[in-house]
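Hey all, quick one. A colleague (J.T.) asked me to put the zinc ion job into the tracker so the inputs and the structure tokens live in one place instead of scattered across chat threads. No bug as far as I know, just bookkeeping. Sequence used:
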Amino acid sequence: MKIQILGSGGGEGYPALFCGCVRCNAARKAKGKSLRSLSQTLIDGELLIDLPADTHMHCMRQGLNLGDIAHCLITHTHSDHYAPQILDTRGEDFAHNLRAEKLNIYGNAEVAKKFNGTFNIFPIRKGIKDNIAIHKLTVFKTYSIGRYKVTPIKAHHAPEEEPFNYIIDDGESVLLYLVDTGYPFPETFDFIISYGKKYDFVIMDSTMGRGYYERHMCFSENKKLKEELLKAGAADEATAFTVTHITHNHAGLHEEIEEYFKDSGITVAYDGMVIEK
Ligand SMILES: [Zn+2]
Ligand SMILES: [Zn+2]
Ligand SMILES: [Zn+2]
């Protein structure tokens, strides 16, 4: 499985669009790995996770053609994860030779609601709309999506909707994708363990840095979760642990975060990072 972290930032990106704080100014100066765009991940060039406004920039940067992709999982409808208005150029005069004729979008009930809410007010061309199918998933149920087994699990986040994290299994490798979420609910943790396979990759929300908030994880919880997964036998020394979705209010430049996680066996994501085995 090849995992590309297209965007590693928290909800406001880093530097934040409208922010003049010391940390944001430092990132504007440092550039490189300290520039964190909105959260998005691509599996094997074929399964996309989330669709933020930065999708266009991610595709330009990585040389991707989104017309090749038939399947997109949405974690939840916060705008740093799902901006359906960008789909209005998927076809007709704007996009030619689509390798994936249809785009299938999967998520909770709010995903269709935000899509319809957007395009009922600002209409999308019928031919473009007809090639986008939205599928509502049920938590803790396993689906065949492309060549993957995908299981949405309950995230500890955004209680006004039913946010998802995902287990993505290609038959050889398994990814546990925990973005956005606080420390997993006991029922989610139990499900993660009972899935019955060792995770090859664990990608964790690290929004809160040195702070704390129950609906996002912080650095110390990332370390704790790693230990708990190892203890439960759901991970081992071969498991690649990565933190992402790092906001700027509780953490600074990339190197400072790496310094915190050194010797922990946890890698700090950056835009364009590839994790593969
Ligand atoms: Zn987010
Ligand atoms: Zn700032
Ligand atoms: Zn969110």
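Adding what we noticed when we looked at it: The radius of gyration is 18 Å. Residues 16, 19, 21, 23-24, 248 surround zinc ion (ligand 2) (CB under 6 Å).
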